[in-house]
């Protein structure tokens, strides 16, 4: 009874994993939010006691030599992004696709049997209050799921290089995190001899707005760039705060 089914896919199994088993049967137009889908494909096709199905999907996507019977699925992230991003698998299941940036439109177009169009990510205006005049104490904020790709370690290293001026800054990491990443960053801050960053964990929409409004700088670093459109970067631009990208 539908003219079209639209499936929105991001590289997070907790958010998007439920649609994966249905994709081959949907005949959907797929919105490919990210350039990289290895984190969605891994838990979607592997089981705790067997990687054979996941290896089969990799070979169907990239050829028989793409992975050996005893070879690891996960590679260093830069290598994974270049050779095994898995976007081709998901694009191949769609009747058409939307991507959010030109830098991966051709990868989707080569795999998708239907039309592929680049449409920038849309995000509602949050109505931020204007940036207040800078005071003695300054705040850097990183938004979203905290993982090594967010480069929080590089921010800490940069702060350590500010000499006496580093004591003016505080660094807040706003969003969910793995305990291992928290421990790693706290150990790095201790090694560098700087104030530890603050971890908020997941926050409400209202608290997110307040965190941004107390920020002097929004940090949206990525390396490598695995997504098509950064909601946190759009969020930061809407807030009119200085933005690191």
List descriptors:
globular, 5-stranded parallel β-sheet, 4-stranded parallel β-sheet, 245 residues, single chain, alpha/beta, 9 strands
In terms of topology, how is this protein built?
Blueprint: E1 6-9, H1 13-16, H2 23-26, E2 29-32, H3 38-45, H4 52-62, H5 77-83, H6 87-92, E3 96-99, H7 105-111, E4 116-118, E5 138-143, H8 152-160, E6 169-174, H9 179-192, E7 198-201, H10 205-213, E8 217-219, H11 231-239, E9 243-244
Parallel strand pairs: 1-2, 2-3, 3-4, 5-6, 5-8, 6-7, 8-9
Helix pairs in contact: 8-9
Short description, anyone?
The protein is an alpha/beta fold.
What report would you give on this structure?
- The structure is a single chain.
- The chain has 245 residues and is an alpha/beta fold.
- It is 36% helix and 15% strand.
- It contains eleven helices and nine strands.
- Strand 5 (138-143), helix 8 (152-160) and strand 6 (169-174) form a beta-alpha-beta unit.
- The longest helix has 14 residues, at 179-192.
SSE order: EHHEHHHHEHEEHEHEHEHE
Strand coverage percent = 5-15%
Query: What separation lies between the terminal Cα atoms?
Result: 44 Å
| Gyration radius, rounded | 20 Å
For the secondary structure, the number of strands is 9
Strand count, sense and barrel status of the largest sheet are: 5 strands, parallel
Task: Count up the helices.
Answer: 11
Helical content, roughly? 25-40%
If you average the pLDDT, what whole number results? 92
| Spans of at least 5 consecutive residues with low confidence | none
Question: Strand arrangement, largest sheet?
Answer: 7-6-5-8-9
The geometry reads as: globular
Structural class: alpha/beta
